[in-house]
Amino acid sequence: MLIxxxxxxxxxxxxxxxxxxxxxxxxxxxxxPHQPQxxxxxxxxxxxxxxQPLHPLALADxxxxxxxxxxxxxxxxxxxxxxxxxxxRLAHRIQALRNLPFIVVSNPHIAQIxxxxxxxxxxxxxxxxxxxxxxxxxxxxxxxxxxLVQTHSNTIPILARGFLECRRYISSGDVxxxxxxHLRARIGTRLIAEQHIALHLSSQPxxxxxxxxxxxxxxxxxxxxxxxxxxxxxVRHCEAFVGExxxxxxxxxxxxxxxxxxxxxxxxxxxxxxxxxxxxLKNAFRATVESGKEREPIEVTIAAAPDDPDVASLATNxxxxxxxxxxxxxxxxxxxxIRDRGGGISPEVLPSVWAYSFTTFADEFAAEVGTNSSSGxxxxxxxxxxxxxxxxxxxxxxxxxxxxxxxxxxxHFGGGVQVQSLWGWGTDVYLKxxxxxx
Length: 438
Fold this sequence. Notes:
three-stranded antiparallel sheet; five-stranded mixed sheet; 438 residues; alpha+beta; single chain
């Protein structure tokens, strides 16, 4: 079982009630027809922020403030860095939602997501006008971050339900493009917020004392990033989870053999890797069992990228209490190959596996979630699966967005996912991950 710092208990605190105020002053009425229900922001504020370019997020950005416990100044630096990124990202998403057809944004589910983004931006704007320089402001800002993470935790199923209800007014291609952009943006936004929350919970000003210092000296975590993550342990953890689902559904489970360099360590976000590996193993397990090859093991090969002195000299030092120290426990990158004997992917299906609107499990899953798939609309089936299951990963297939979302997680930090299918034999999936380097 993987162990990581918990940020959920911050949400269990009794936050002050949200001030969901709607303006009754005619002078504040905007030209945009969907007035924010939660807070008030002006069109020019959104346009000004949305016009600014997005900062490309790297793992080095997230560990730049040092290894916990952080002193107060480093914690303020983390808060201000977070504040410099999130309003721009939220404004970009608000603008993207506004660019959808009017009848689509009028849908109550999509309007709910729009209002959530407006609310989150309205809670951040007061902090953007000034720098966070004291613990009281930092604590309040962290509560805003926790509220943001919780508010947007169910965004994807709600959006999917809205697009499902509007399927007559927007093409499947437009839905795929919007979801791809939205999901990729959401990965970074959520990670930025969760990173500061995790640093806050483990920081010196709030949790001082000798015991805390000793505890963090023994931890490999910097916020939500594990600087000594073992991909082999993640594979075993995900294997146990997927294996239980497979055995429950089919009565059997194939074995998983790990070879290559199983002792490899790297710096990465464990939750991201868990999601990717889980989705890839679900596909491999299902294909193996349904092709009658359950006695053939699924082979997982882990290969560490060779050392590159030029890369190692760039942005690879981790700040530790204000001092530059090398992170010697991780390597620049890892490639993980997942090989199965499940018969491969047919040439007709292969080009569609990266579409959010595609699932090869539509008919059976549609029956499970109580939807009618007789129309043969793959986009409708996938959206039914996403919205009906609300992101539940307890099925082996059918969500219709596992592969493309897994690829989005991998590509977020410069990695990627490639599929090599030998039709009639099996499939090799190559997952490439970039770390921080030595």
